[in-house]
């Protein structure tokens, strides 16, 4: 193990043809990944990139031309909203891509880390991923049918940790997202950046996650996770470094740049031209870095007075349904997916708690029992970490709780493409255009007791048939839209409630059917949904004051 600079770590230890695993904790990027792109820009290096969430900066590696294959779970933008990215859409037509769910991705890494020939999974059955991935199979055993995934073994792992000691042990505060199994599985070892190197980590041994013998090189690089953030743990146990927040404007800047014809100019400015990490930090500026490291100031949202948008009406009806289903099922937990589903779940859980229900919120990054932060609609915000009763990882949240028969869980997800049977597609359109991938959707939709879906209805999104099934619709109970509510009856979604309005109900039903991509059946007992007023959307707007997910987007992003 050596202490060295970024250029030396990558230059000495990364080889053409490597399977490179970028480890994702709550820090989602690394100065080492930036250096990797810099050294291998426009080189046919033949890398296999193993990375759970590529997000907007993953586009840089696609543009670099150094990738042969991508093994991923989510490849799209995260800020200011979750959207497909045109660089992935173009690049993935040339690069081989394997799509996995979070649990199966982690299970494959764990199999490699433990030397097992395969890992058992309850995910993927009934999805297109189960058919297209040779590393998945289902076998009959004396105990029943079992899904198996093959080991996924990187050559080298790259990550950012908060602290290292002089021997190279690495400390990372939770939540852990995918955990460190990929770092333990890497054939040759780990390259790490850290905020600081200290003499002794034994006072924080509970946060030491990767032992020194796994390390090839450690680079001391303050703000090495930028534009991602670093949490150092609860104040009473905090690691001996300064944490900092996500640089949201920077994430938005790279997203916007990736949609221009001159994206390479942005890459030159921020990735290729800074001579070293110090130059990169100098370009960011001391004031910007100090603001990221300063204690978070709670944003006090200004109440909006505009009439509810169609998207807001759908979110209110969705929150009503979440509260109703919590009461009906006695749910222990609601897992809030991203975007509109997240906001509706937050509001619905709040209503359920006001009614005396003991129900928790969970997020797949590793949050359990958290209270959302007003003014910040992002479910994985570092601002939500201190409010959590448990800080875990994805495998524990999804595998130990959401899919467990001993936990009553309701899943809340959005609708990218949805067919008449409730099957969800967030991966690829029928013409082969990449969307974003499964994320944790397949795991939670197949594992939770029931799933509630929310989205605005259009024939483009509500289709009779989708060639690609990311998440099968067996456990989709209801879909809430701006036009009404669809519920599963005899394995088909049927209109059971319609949006209110001055028109006769039959006209409103006809309007809903016209917005659906298949001949939508109507229940005999169809009912009117309640009117939604400005006061009804107050909670939603407090969470999302800029209207990023609520259909009122008026700013370039959160401040």
Automatic annotation (TrEMBL):
GO terms for molecular function: transferase activity. Its EC number is 2.8.3.-. It comes from the Bacteria. Keywords: Transferase. Belongs to the 3-oxoacid CoA-transferase subunit B family. This is CoA-transferase. It comes from Actinomycetospora aurantiaca.
């Amino acid at each position: 193990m050596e202490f060295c600079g970024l250029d030396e770590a990558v230059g000495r230890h990364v080889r053409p043809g490597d399977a490179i695993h970028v480890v994702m904790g709550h820090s989602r990027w690394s100065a080492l990944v930036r250096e990797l792109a810099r050294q291998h820009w426009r080189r046919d290096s033949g890398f296999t990139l193993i990375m759970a969430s590529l997000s907007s900066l993953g586009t840089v590696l696609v543009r670099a031309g150094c990738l042969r294959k991508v093994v991923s779970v989510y490849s799209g933008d995260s800020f200011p909203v979750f959207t497909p990215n045109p660089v992935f859409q173009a690049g993935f037509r040339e690069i081989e891509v394997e799509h996995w769910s979070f649990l199966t991705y982690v299970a494959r890494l764990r199999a490699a880390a433990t030397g097992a020939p395969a890992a058992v999974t309850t995910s993927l059955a009934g999805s297109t991923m189960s058919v297209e991935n040779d590393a998945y199979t289902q076998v009959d055993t004396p105990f029943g049918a079992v899904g198996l995934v093959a080991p996924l073994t990187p050559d080298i792992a790259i990550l950012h940790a908060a602290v290292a000691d002089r021997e190279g042990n690495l400390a990372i505060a939770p939540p852990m997202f995918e955990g460190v199994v990929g770092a333990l599985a890497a054939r040759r070892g780990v390259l790490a950046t850290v905020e600081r190197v200290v003499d002794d980590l034994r006072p924080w041994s509970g946060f030491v996650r990767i032992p020194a013998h796994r390390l090839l090189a450690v680079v001391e690089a303050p703000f090495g996770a930028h534009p991602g953030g670093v949490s150092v743990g609860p104040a009473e146990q905090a690691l001996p470094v300064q944490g900092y927040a996500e640089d949201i404007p920077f994430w938005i800047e790279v997203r916007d740049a990736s949609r221009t014809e001159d994206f390479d100019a942005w890459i030159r400015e921020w990735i290729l031209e800074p001579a070293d990490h110090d130059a990169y930090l100098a370009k960011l500026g001391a004031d910007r870095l100090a603001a990221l490291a300063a204690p978070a100031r709670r944003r006090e949202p200004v109440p909006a007075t505009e009439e509810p948008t169609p998207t807001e009406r759908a979110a209110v009806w969705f929150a009503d349904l979440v509260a109703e289903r919590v009461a009906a099922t006695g749910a222990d937990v609601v897992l809030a997916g991203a975007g509109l589903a997240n906001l509706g779940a937050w509001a619905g859980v709040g209503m359920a708690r006001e009614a005396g229900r003991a129900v928790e919120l969970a997020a797949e990054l590793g949050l359990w029992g958290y209270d959302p932060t007003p003014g910040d609609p992002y479910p994985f915000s570092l601002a939500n970490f201190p409010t959590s009763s448990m800080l875990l990882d994805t495998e524990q949240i999804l595998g130990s709780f959401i899919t467990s028969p001993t936990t009553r869980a309701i899943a809340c997800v959005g609708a990218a493409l949805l067919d008449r049977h409730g099957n969800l597609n967030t991966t690829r359109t029928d013409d082969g255009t990449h969307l974003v991938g499964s994320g944790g959707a397949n795991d939670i939709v197949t594992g939770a007791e029931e799933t509630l879906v929310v989205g605005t209805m259009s024939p483009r999104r509500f289709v009779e048939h989708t060639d690609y099934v990311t998440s099968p619709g067996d456990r989709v109970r209801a879909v809430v839209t701006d036009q009404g509510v669809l519920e599963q009856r005899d394995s088909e979604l049927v209109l059971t409630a319609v949006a209110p309005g001055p028109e006769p109900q039959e006209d409103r039903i006809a309007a809903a059917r016209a917005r659906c991509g298949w001949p939508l059946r109507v229940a005999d007992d169809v009912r009117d949904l309640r009117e939604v007023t400005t006061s009804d959307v107050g909670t939603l707007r407090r969470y999302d004051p800029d209207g990023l997910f609520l259909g009122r987007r008026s700013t370039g992003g959160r401040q």
